[in-house]
Amino acid sequence: MSKQLILLLTLPTSPYPDQRPGTNGLKKKTHVFQSKKNYLHNFIQCIFSSIDLRDRQGSTMVVGGDGRYFNSTVIQVIVQMAAANGVGRVVIGQNGIMSTPAVSCVIRKSKAIGGIILTASHNPGGPDGDFGIKFNTANGGPAPEAVTNKIFQLSRTIEEFAICPELRVDLGTIGKQSFDLENKFKPFTVEIVDPVESYANSLRNIFDFAVLKELLSGDNHIQIRLDAMHGVTGPYVKKILCEELGSPANSAINCVPLENFGGRHPDPNLIYASDLVETMKSGQYDFGAAFDGDGDRNMILGKHGFFVNPSDSVAVLAANIFCIPYFQHTGVRGFARSMPTSAALDMVARATKIQLYETPTGWRFFGSLMDAGRLSLCGEESFGTGSDYIREKDGLWAVLAWLSILAVRRQSVEDIMTDHWRTYGRNYYTRFDYEEVDLDAAVEMMLDLELMISDRAFNGQVFTVGEKKYQVEAADNFEYSDPVDGTISRNQGLRIIFKGGSRIVFRLSGTDSFGATIRLYIDSYEKDINKLFQDPQVVLAELVTIALQLSQIHERTGRRGPTVIT
C-alpha cells in the first residue's frame, strides 16, 4: 500500500503595509499575528521568497523560539511553508525552544541557509503581550539591511503563499521525522534536537570548564545566583551551570520557560530584575546574573547588589580577555561597541593598541566585521555582549566570561570593577527610556533637535549648569561607513560631544511593537582617582539638565519623566 502524499497548496493573499522588519525582526502585539488574515503567512512567505529559489531547494533551515505564547503554533506554520517552498530539512529545538545564541550556533554548525527565531526579545509575552519573527542568515547573524529591505518590499506586493496545511510535526520527541510531499522526489525532513547540547559543546571549547567547576563547586567555591526570568535560558543554565559545573540547583531560579514569563517583563535590568537585586543585597551571594526572554542579554551583579553597567562589562571583558582560553588560541582581532554605548571600551582599546570600531545599534554591524576577521569582542549598552564564535549577543557566554575572570583573578566583582576604573578611568553613564510615546511627536522632536545641532553656531556653544561649564566640540547625526563593504548607514542617532569627552545622545528605537521609544544616553569620562566612586545620577545631573533643556522632551512628549532609567 503506497504512502499518502502531503498536498502542496498555493493560496491567494493580500499585502499589508506594515511588515518592515527592524533590527530585531518584525515585532507586533501577539493578536496582530493571530487575528489579521494571513498576516503571519505573508511575512513567513516573504522570508522564504527573499532567498533565491536555487539556494532554497533542498537547503537546511533552523527554527527556534523563546517559548512565549503562540510559539508552537507559529512553528507548525513555518514547517508547513518551509516544505512548500523547497526547503529540504528543518532543524527545531525540542518543544520549539532554542535560545537566540543557540540558533546562531546551530545555523553555523549545520551549514544552514538561515534560521527563523520566534521572539520579541525582552518584551512581555502572553495573549496581550508581544510576538516577533526574526530571520538570521547563513552566517548565523541577523539579516543585513539589504535582506530586510527585500523582505519588506516583497510584503508590499505579495499575492500568494505556498503551504502544506496537512503537515504536522511532533515537537516533543527528539529525532528525525520524514514526510513525502506531492510533486517532490525527496522526502522533507524535520529534525528535533536537544536545544542545549550543540551550543554547550561550543562553550566547552571556549572556556575551561574544569577551572569553572572548581570555582563553582570546589573547596573554596563562590556562591552564585542566576535568574532566567522564565525565559529560554533556564534549561541552558540548569544543564551547564548546575548539572555540569556543579553549582547548586537552588542557585538558579525561574528556569522553567513560561508563555507569559510568569507575568514578568523578561528584561535583565535593575527595574525588571529587582527581585534578584534585592536578593544580592543580602550579601549571601558573590555573583549574580539575569537573562532576558530569548537569552541574548545579561545583567551582571556583584556581592551586596553591586551593579556592573553593561558598557563597563564589555570593557572589563576586553581588559581581561586572555582569562578566556579561546582568545589565548585565536588572539584578539578587534573590539567594537555600538555608538550609544559608553566609551569605556575605547580606553581599553587605546591602552592595548587594539583596533576599535564604533557602529550603529544592531548586532548585524558586528557580524559584518566578524565575518571579515576584524572583530573578536563586542558589546552594547542594552545589556548585550558577545564574541566571534557566533553572530549574536550571548547572555550565558558573558556570564561564563565573567566567571572565568573571577576564577583567574580571585577577586570580587566589585574589586575587579574598581581596579579597572583606577587603571583606565571611569565613564559615568546612564540611559533614560521614554517608551510608547506618540510617534509623530517623537519624530518632530528629533527633527527639530537635529536642525538645532546642525547650525554652525551650535559648535563651540557653552552650557553652564551650576558651577560647571560644558563646551560643544562636535554635534551630528551619526552615520557609519562599513569598513568591509562600504555600506553607509545614516540617521543612527543625534550626538552632542563636549570638550573632555562627555556626550549626550538621542536615538529613536525601532524595537517596540507599539508607539515609539526615545532613548537618551549620557556619558561622561572621569580620570581623577578621587572622583571615581560617586553616584552616576549625581555626577551626570548637569548633563541631564542640558539634554532636557535642548530637547524639551517632557514638554514635547507629555511625559513627566522616563519610563526606565538604567
Automatic annotation (TrEMBL):
<feature type="domain" description="Alpha-D-phosphohexomutase alpha/beta/alpha">
    <location>
        <begin position="198"/>
        <end position="303"/>
    </location>
</feature>
<dbReference type="GO" id="GO:0000287">
    <property type="term" value="F:magnesium ion binding"/>
</dbReference>
<dbReference type="InterPro" id="IPR005845">
    <property type="entry name" value="A-D-PHexomutase_a/b/a-II"/>
</dbReference>
<feature type="domain" description="Alpha-D-phosphohexomutase alpha/beta/alpha">
    <location>
        <begin position="311"/>
        <end position="424"/>
    </location>
</feature>
<dbReference type="Pfam" id="PF24947">
    <property type="entry name" value="PGM1_C_vert_fung"/>
</dbReference>
<dbReference type="InterPro" id="IPR016055">
    <property type="entry name" value="A-D-PHexomutase_a/b/a-I/II/III"/>
</dbReference>
<dbReference type="GO" id="GO:0005975">
    <property type="term" value="P:carbohydrate metabolic process"/>
</dbReference>
<comment type="similarity">
    <text>Belongs to the phosphohexose mutase family.</text>
</comment>
<dbReference type="InterPro" id="IPR005844">
    <property type="entry name" value="A-D-PHexomutase_a/b/a-I"/>
</dbReference>
<dbReference type="InterPro" id="IPR016066">
    <property type="entry name" value="A-D-PHexomutase_CS"/>
</dbReference>
<keyword id="KW-0460">Magnesium</keyword>
<keyword id="KW-0597">Phosphoprotein</keyword>
<dbReference type="Pfam" id="PF02880">
    <property type="entry name" value="PGM_PMM_III"/>
</dbReference>
<dbReference type="GO" id="GO:0005829">
    <property type="term" value="C:cytosol"/>
</dbReference>
<dbReference type="Pfam" id="PF02879">
    <property type="entry name" value="PGM_PMM_II"/>
</dbReference>
<dbReference type="InterPro" id="IPR005846">
    <property type="entry name" value="A-D-PHexomutase_a/b/a-III"/>
</dbReference>
<feature type="domain" description="Alpha-D-phosphohexomutase alpha/beta/alpha">
    <location>
        <begin position="19"/>
        <end position="159"/>
    </location>
</feature>
<keyword id="KW-0963">Cytoplasm</keyword>
<protein>
    <submittedName>
        <fullName>Phosphoglucomutase 1</fullName>
    </submittedName>
</protein>
<dbReference type="GO" id="GO:0004614">
    <property type="term" value="F:phosphoglucomutase activity"/>
</dbReference>
<keyword id="KW-0479">Metal-binding</keyword>
<dbReference type="InterPro" id="IPR005841">
    <property type="entry name" value="Alpha-D-phosphohexomutase_SF"/>
</dbReference>
<dbReference type="InterPro" id="IPR036900">
    <property type="entry name" value="A-D-PHexomutase_C_sf"/>
</dbReference>
<dbReference type="InterPro" id="IPR045244">
    <property type="entry name" value="PGM"/>
</dbReference>
<dbReference type="Pfam" id="PF02878">
    <property type="entry name" value="PGM_PMM_I"/>
</dbReference>
